[in-house]
Amino acid sequence: MSLILVNLIDGLVTGLLLFMLSSGLTLIFSMMGVLNFAHASFYMLGAYFGYQISTYVGFWPGLVIGPVLVGVIGALIERYGLRRVHQYGHVPELIFTFGLALLIEEVVQFFWGKGQIAFNVPESLKFALFTISGNAIPAYKVFMIFCSMGIFLVLLYILTRTRVGMVIQAALSYPNTVEALGHNVPMVFMGVFGVGTALAGIAGVIAGPTVGVFPGMAIQLGSIVFVTIVVGGLGSLWGALVASLLIGWITNFAAAYSFRFSTIFEWLGLERPANMAESLLRDAWTLTFPQIGPILPYLLMILILVLRPYGLFGKREV
Amino acid sequence: MKTPIRMISGAMVAGAMMIGAAQAADPVKIAFIDPLSGWMGATGEQGLSQYKFAAEELVNKKGGVLGGRMFEIVPFDNKLSGKESLIQLQVAIDQGIRYIAQGNSSGIAHAITAAVEKHNRRNPDKRVLFLNYSAVDPALTNEKCNFWHFRFDANADIKMDAITDVIKANKDIKKIYIIGQDYSFGKAVAAAAVKFLKQKRPDIVIAGNELHPIAKVKDFTPYARKIMASGADAIITGNWGADMVGLGKAVISAGFKKPIYTYYGAGDGITGTFGAAGKGVLKLVSEGQVNPPASPEAKAYIEAFEAKYTKISFAQPRIANVIGMLAQAIEKAGTADDVVKVATALEGMEYDSMFGTKVKMRATDHQAIQDVHILAHTDENVTFDYDNSGFGTVVESTVKMASANIATTCKMKRPK
User: Fold this and answer.
1) Which residue on chain B is closest to A260 by alpha carbon?
2) Of A20, B55, B317, B356, which has fewest CB within 10 angstroms of its CB?
3) For the whole model, what pTM was predicted?
4) B359-403: per-residue pLDDT in tens?
């Protein structure tokens, strides 16, 4: 029982981290109908900036300054890069963001090298907040949970309760009308892109110490972020939250329980092959739940696409 | 009428002289096929700089081999893909290169050794040798061995033999957790661990033995929880790269304070990332002694390397052995182009490495036998640290000429 609680907390942390990333992406998508391939790269940039700033002034200033820097870079890229490509349609935009992802990866390697970066949890958080039957829950993880929840609440508040949020939501569906009403829609676009990438940046600074900071970070998380927003529904913030939590819990529970598939086979009455080395089905027989853990989100995505193509909370076709 | 003839003959003489001069200084090219970009790019780059440095210091500065032929390292980026490696292998062969060095990933080594064997069989005039400096799956010198493949690193079984010797002597260890990446190497490590533990300490309980998908696990926390729940007194893992960092960090932050025996728990930023958290906990099995320096020659060599490559830590001493042994074999064979003669000279060779060990290349399976050390991650008595972190690996115990008589199933087909 207690182990379930521990796994719930761990899964919550992973899920909320994923949420921070996918919320930015889904916002950007709902704004401009463009999937930002470079989103995970901004996450990586956030981690590197956070590290670099932390070497000068410490982790906490890095947590604030890093994402702001990433957001500013994101906004500038939208203003001077994406906007020019926008007029040519969706495919050129996609290719632009794809190229951007490659560029950011190389730039990062140019400045920081190719190895692991020693970005560590700040000393003030390096203790176990509480333990559940011998399992330490690090204070840093609790910090991650509060940070992500805080960000979600702030985002929700801005989008639904403030005028800026109203303008954004309106520009989402009827950009021309909103522009005709006198609002600066291009500025709104730039702001949303900046905020979206800043969110990815925060995720990077926070996740960096636990996940490890290296040039492969973007690729590591890139595909799972897309799965998350597809499952949750493109453009929906609630969808991103639910999907991220779902995927976080699925991968965590899959890894936590070393359930062997051979138990199912034996229960079905099938016999275990005598000579495992020769048997064609040996992979099926030695399969354990943790081994298929990382595939489960993709299976979930396929399921969603087949049964409910616009995602759990989405409004448009994928 | 006379002028064109004079011009032509002059050009021909000049051309002949140039060809003659080029042949006299024709370098011995060694292809380096490893990832130079992407996920494992750091390890590949580090290896490449060590090869270049070794070729420069140990061979070229001393006048080259065979009276003036220099070693030239030609890099090829295989992007950690088997398919790309075979393409680069063919490119290297087409460029006339006869020596192929590779080491990152046993999976790729398997592909290359099979391709080299097939190529040499079909093209006896363009044969190449495969110098495996880091791929440690035992199968490469057992059922998949061939005459053209030489392994310069201690294989996974030899390393596990050394680790289990240390575990055997430690009476505090009663339960062990084995975890690794789900591919040929991870499986080989797990199998060797189970086998040797049963032989040496049958009382030790294997509290867990699992494989996780390679390079796919983003969060090792559930695995760390399982390890803590099992009550293990030690962990054995063959993880490398980001998987090693992820596992190590998760396990240490979950509160694990007992030894973690690793194959690749240092270098490429990993040491810097662990820092103080890894002290007393992280252990590494490896050939090659860096701290304390095994000889004044080794100390000077490492100092010169770190002066030249300021951002790269010196981490694979065996690379210097590869170059040294190849040079010695070429001199002994009297040729760098007839690889059968070079291979014959290389097998059975006993080489004095500056890193304090003799390296003996077994003729039966082309596996190098040398001292194997258990290193501890620490900041005490570190002459050469990694990643400018102040932390490095220091020799804790040594097994001399480890597994010198290890059995092999290799049945090598020798060329006539």
Assistant:
1) B210
2) B356
3) 0.81
4) 999 999 999 999 999 999 998 888 888 888 888 899 998 988 888
